[in-house]
Design goal:
The structure is a single chain. The chain has 407 residues and is mainly α. Helices cover 70% and strands 0% of the residues. The longest helix has 24 residues, at 3-26. The chain is globular, with a radius of gyration of 23 Å.
Length: 407
């Protein structure tokens, strides 16, 4: 492994831990991110001559902490900040116990303070903990990058100005932050399972970290069925990860994947987790999505897929979560269950609404439905639109192949 690859791997695996530690020590979100970035920059200079440390995370945390300490000491109010930081390492409030056993999940609950708007909670956590760029987060939210940058800045300012403490909330307050935490984990998994941009469609380190944190959350909140449903959803999707791209890194459609290579242990665990969640009789959107994933994961071949059931589940999901992306997924399922014309009618409504303008999967879905209907000229135009909007090389290669096939 090259030094550049080692630093990249350390960034994927250690960024969140380094930043979490610095925020706990300094209480300054911007300073924590800046000093963490300084540590990774220094690693690029030092590791080629000194060698990659045996524990890269510890090395990076030490360097970042030293940088932060130096910065605070040089600051006119550094002494006061250091005293505040020392106080932050221990919360004497007897009513506030450390219910969260993982430092990154602890910071996630801190980011997800109810004083912040839900989208700001999710965006801030993805930036701070996962190290996603502002552009990546903006794509996940389907907003412009400048707008997301302002949203992140406002969230940090609110934390500072409102004096929101860096601490774990007491057990009875954890549920009010759970929806945002689940949203963070889901977006983190999705960015690893299907990257929004770059050369690689899959970023396994991100999805693996999301699954790990979801397990911690389920252990922390065993009576929360949506947490269990989210873990089930992740496992059922991750079971197909090895077959989503071929040896050349090209996208492989679900119908063309080698199902003998799917991870049967993950599927079995995912179905069991889903069954446990559903038995509580409190259905929610993550449980419904997991049920959809289970329909796919348990079908022995594409012909066995229960598309009417999937379409019905999407009907329930769109009532629970009336977002345009869910509506688009429902259109795909309806197109498979009841014919491409039925699916295209729903896609046309979405396009006319303008809610998914600039979203390449809207155009790609429309193109596929038009292709199945035999409307070649219109399908070509839609594929070209999708190609211009696609964010990863793998998706662009797939769309070019589709264009070549029908042209």
């Amino acid at each position: 492994m090259t030094v550049q690859a080692a630093v990249a791997a350390a960034f994927r695996n250690e960024w969140g831990q380094v930043v979490a530690t610095l925020i706990r020590i300094t209480g300054d979100w911007d300073l924590a991110e800046e000093c963490a970035q300084d540590a990774f920059t220094l690693a690029l200079r030092r590791w080629p001559t000194d060698g990659v440390p045996r524990k890269p995370g510890a090395w990076l945390t030490t360097v970042a902490r030293n940088r932060a300490t130096d910065r605070l000491r040089r600051d006119a109010v550094g002494a006061a900040k250091l005293r505040e930081a020392a106080a932050m390492t221990y919360d004497p409030d007897p009513d506030v116990t450390d219910e969260v056993p993982d430092d990154r999940l602890r910071l996630m609950f801190t980011c997800c303070h109810p004083a912040l708007a839900l989208e700001s909670q999710v965006a801030l956590t993805l930036r701070t903990l996962a190290g996603l760029t502002t552009a990546e987060i903006a794509r996940a939210f389907l907003v412009a990058e400048p707008a997301m940058s302002k949203r992140l800045t406002r969230a940090k300012q609110k934390i500072r100005n409102a004096g929101i403490p860096y601490r774990v909330p007491p057990a009875h307050l954890l549920p009010e932050r759970t929806p945002a935490v689940l949203g963070v984990l889901f977006l983190l998994f999705n960015e690893g399972y299907s990257a929004t941009a770059g050369a690689d469609l899959l970023r396994h380190a991100l999805s693996a970290e999301a699954i790990r944190l979801a397990r911690v959350l389920v252990a922390l909140m065993p009576d929360e069925p949506e947490a269990t449903g989210l873990l089930a959803l992740m496992l059922l999707h991750d079971a197909r990860r090895a077959t989503r791209v071929d040896d050349d890194g090209d996208l492989v459609l679900l119908a063309d994947q080698d199902r003998t290579r799917w991870d049967t242990e993950e599927i079995t665990e995912g179905v069991a987790q889903l069954d446990g969640a559903l038995r509580r009789g409190q259905p929610g959107p993550y449980q419904v999505q997991a049920a959809i994933a289970a329909c796919h994961a348990t079908a022995t071949d594409p012909a066995d897929t229960d598309w009417p059931q999937i379409a019905a589940l999407y009907g329930s999901l769109v009532r629970m979560t009336p977002t345009p992306v869910v509506a688009l997924n429902r259109a795909v399922a309806v197109g498979m269950a009841h014919g491409p014309a039925a699916g295209l009618a729903l896609v046309t409504v979405l396009r006319e609404s303008g809610q998914l303008a600039g979203y390449h999967l809207l155009a790609a879905t429309e193109a596929d439905l038009l292709r199945r209907l035999g409307s070649t000229e219109e399908a070509v135009a839609a594929y070209r639109e999708a190609l211009a909007l696609a964010g990863t090389d793998s998706e662009r290669r797939f769309l070019r192949r589709r264009l070549t096939d029908i042209e």
